[in-house]
Amino acid sequence: MTEQRRQLFGLIGFIIAGLVFIAAGINFGDPLTIIGSVIWVTSYLIWMIPLLGGSK
User: Fold this and answer.
1) pTM of whole model > 0.90?
2) Which parts of the chain span the membrane according to its record (predicted)?
């Protein structure tokens, strides 16, 4: 398994955790949790872009 693939799996795990936090924020009606979680997921998606672009 390459380093890039390990990083990708780790980032996917963080994104899944962020989605769980978004669901929890919606369930408990906590807008701060929702906002923070959306920022979390968005940041990791942006971080993932170079990894999905392939090696150059």
Assistant:
1) no
2) 7-26, 32-53
